[in-house]
Amino acid sequence: MNLNQELQSLNNRLDKLRRKLAGAEERGDQAIAGQATQEIETITKKINKVKGRTKHALNKQGSDVKSLAFNRPLTKAEQADMGKLKKSVKGLVVVHPMTALGREMGLSVVTGYAPKAF
């Protein structure tokens, strides 16, 4: 299971437990409410761990991309014919600003990273 699927399943479990807690409090069942509260705390900790691993992976990937020797913003024509550009430039990595990696790197335009100038 990858990190996104794990995070989604944990969020689903957390949502179910919150509904269970609300129902138990509405009925006045303290035993079930206490158990649900403890489970919510443990799942919240797990979610934070998974988010930390995701952020670490993005930081590592971003530093790998930034370590490439050359980068520049891509023109609209190059973006339109991305296949031709990727065939002509060996090792090209294109980062869009709206992806998780692009947001992590703080980009504002589509940027290409490559080991050599293109």
From TrEMBL:
Biological source species: Photobacterium lutimaris
Superkingdom of the organism of origin: Bacteria
Protein name from the UniProt record: YibL family ribosome-associated protein
Cross-referenced Gene3D superfamilies: Uncharacterised protein PF10928, DUF2810
